[in-house]
Amino acid sequence: MTKMKMSMILAAALACGLAGAQSLVSERSISLNAAMELATTGLERCRADGYKVTVTVLNRHARTAVVLSDDGVNPHTVENSMRKAYTAFTTRAPSVDMGKRPQPGLSGFLLLDRITTLEGGLPIFAGKELVGSVGISGAPGGDKDAACAQAGIDKIAKGLGG
């Protein structure tokens, strides 16, 4: 086949493939205001229960929207809350579900940066669309972190629509 024919075939293939491509992508994400409200509610719930925690909320692109770290909280909670939120975002499931995955897949996943099996990270959905995630760390048990995270999600749930 000549170079000219190959070039024409490649150009036609590209034109066919790109002809139907969209120029813009529209995605929903948790707003900064909603992220702050969620984080504040989660922090207040944990405080009411007697826990000092760090709350991290990630937006639609797994970028940090808000981090609230209570006075006197242990320093490791900042990283832990991020890992929990990131895991929940990446897996579209509570962070604790990561630990339920079978081997050898689990050990491979745990080699990735920011992945954890600890409880306290929850995805945030608007209907079926993932729009962010939240991770809380510092309470004496991941179930308590998760309860505070859920309180924050419940607070903003109406605004998430469907």
Automatic annotation (TrEMBL):
It comes from the Bacteria. Keywords: Signal. Residues 1-21 form the signal peptide. Gene3D superfamilies: Haem-degrading domain. Pfam families: HbpS-like. This is Heme-binding protein. It comes from Polaromonas jejuensis.
